[in-house]
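Most newcomers find our protein records easier to grasp once they have seen one. A learned vocabulary of local backbone shapes supplies the integers on the structure line. Here is such a record, shown just as it appears in the course material:
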Amino acid sequence: MDLNDRMKKTHALKRLLSLLLCFAFLICVFSMDLPVSRAEDKDIQNDATDQQNADTEEENPDQTSDIDTDEDDQIADDENKYDEQPEVEFEEEQADTYEVETTEQPDPADYDAHNIIVKFKDNVSPRAMSSALETMGGTIDESDMGSLLLVDVPDDQDILGFVEELENLKNVEYAQPNYVYNPIRSVNDPYAKNGTQWYLNNISAFGAWDYTMGVSSIKIAVLDTGINTSHPEFSSQIVAAWNAVTGGTNVEDRHSHGTHVAGIAAAKANNSAGIAGIAPGAKLVIVDVFNGQSSAYTYDIIKGIEYAVANGARVINMSLGGYYYDQAFENAVNAAVASNVVVVAAAGNDGTSDYISPSDFENTISVIASNQSNTDANFSNYGASKDISAPGVDIYSTVLSGRYGYKDGTSMSSPIVAGVAALILSVNPNLTVGEVKNILYKTATDVKGNHNGFNYPVGWDQYTGHGIVNARAAVRMAARPKTTVARASANSIKISWSRIACASGYEIYQATASGGTYKKVGTVTSGSMTSWTHTNLTSGATYYYKVRSYVTLGSTKHYSNDSAVKSLFLELPSPAGLSTVPASFNSVKLAWRKVTGAGGYQVYRATSESGPYKAVYSGKANKFTDKSLTTGTIYYYKVRAFRKTGGKIVGGSFTAVQNARPVLSNAAGLKAKTAGFDNVKLFWRKVAGASGYEIHRADASGTYKLVASAKGTKFTDKALVPGTAYSYRVRAYRTAGGRRVYGGFTVVQTARPVLAKPGSIKTGSSSSNAAQISWGSVKGATGYQVYRSTSQSGTYDLVGTTAKRSFTDTTPSAGVVYYYKVRAYRTVGNATGYGPYSAAKSVRIK
């Protein structure tokens, strides 16, 4: 018979016995709290309300039953009475064979980082021991206990790996780490100290308390039957209280169920009385959804959930349920989860896998009950929707009238998980609901192997979920910082992490290989400081980091789990100040600033910005001239530093891309000279790489036009109009790829072609009204103009134009001295240009 068949058979028997002995006890509602299995007058007090056995309740799909409404805190005299009840049926505990597996792995906090313990076989000589260790690099530190040795491990060796290698030696009986043992945080609450609260040890609560006992900013909402508000365990614990049925603030418990549940989750600790809750540093939001009745309704529970969320609850516990699907209820739970509130619910106590609300809602953490043997309690519900287990048998907690008592049921298991969730959020309040769930499930203690003839599989199963909640492992994982690494400089890395609320500080560990040995490289002694920079590193190498937080109690540090490993390849920085300028018609000059620690530099070039890039230079200099390029082509460059590491060249990050175009130099040294009456001679210096030169001349509007191309460095511009000022500029060109690529223009130069000054002026007078003027020929002249004045420095008037080299002025007056001067002119097309005037020549008219 498998476990499922066992559960079904047990459940069927319970139903039959209920019909025979308790009339029509309806199975659709949750069973009452299982009665106490032991009782002592000094510990378990009468509760007048709880003395009433669970009455048969009419099934109502709108009602939700308290999972453990049979809350009898009866004295020993009542035990026989309860033994007759079918719900009290316990199976006899038999010898169990099972294994408990934890997901926690040893980490450097658990053992000495420098030595290990080695036990050699008894017949091995001291010399053989030393020889065996020396071959592996180990040395004996202490040997006071014969063949049990304390062995120093080389710094570059991994402790666990060294242990494994030693255990493979034939002369070694065993090897192990030299484990660290710390004092366990204790509390002064008597029932926590004397083992009455046995479940604290089973879930490793004391180990979790080494890190945190909860913080007041984390609130646990208990939606139940209310609370014994005057109970000493709740003094200053309750920060909000509301009756969802009446809308008032009276939440006084009349059943003790809610009081018991609230005490499990967050009763005060270290008050030298009673018990300690799982998260005694957290605060309580109490919501009475029953108002003294045996059942609660969907509408009131939804109002209670909304109240809890509005009053800052981060965790909601609901130890109640009903065997039906409730859409409105699940919507309310989903809304709470969407507000980042963790919702925990009891799985039910009927040994069935039937669907039950709210336990089986998708977003609820459904809690199964376990026993002192860390297997599932025989009354607990199970199934595909169940998530995790927690102790639910003989759970000692607060009851009415300021007293304490035992109760059984998943109602007691649920607040244990809710309390652990509050501890998780106390160390890391930024976690999401999904992250809290993941931590709870991953750190739960898996139950596997054979138990009472049934095999529990490894990992999740429908009878124990992910396993039994492990408070210490969960808190250590929650306190694991989220870590990032980033390059700070050429030889430093900045490690940053999320702040852990209650941390005293952080330790940073580094390895130089994936899976390598981690060494502590830094300690931050402030819990609020969330970064540290590792300096004096070597660029061109990959570094691996992990961080753990710690809490200091007295002189002892208590550590979180290590963060996830983060790695970074420490690149050399990109060279700064890259400049690219044309150096000639076929070269580009690059220069950049030096990088500290660089062994050299690499220059990459492409003909488009997107590449592909090819290396064109590798060397130590921080400048480079790229030659044999094509004039006019744009070249794109990027540069990186490199260094040799382990015989390999490791490059840093590249500069931003810069570009340059090799061009011809500007033509220079232009001179423009008049070369005759109609031409101008131009001269300039040679431009390296030029295929030729273009001569540009400005017209009357100032617009430059190409007038000629020349191979050499001089040119004569002909057929010009004398006397006109001509402006010139010249540029070199180089033919590349069938097209001309140009350099810059010269500075503009201006010249004016002119006619010669007429020479050999002669004058004479042959009559009273005439003067004869003659002159020498001017080359290129179209004609001449004759000007006259009555004084040498006076105003000269044009008196005649002729194509000849002489002119007779017939208009002068007798006896008057006249002065004459002549100039040549030349007409080209519609333009006429004039030469300079001749010297003035006088004549007296007869």
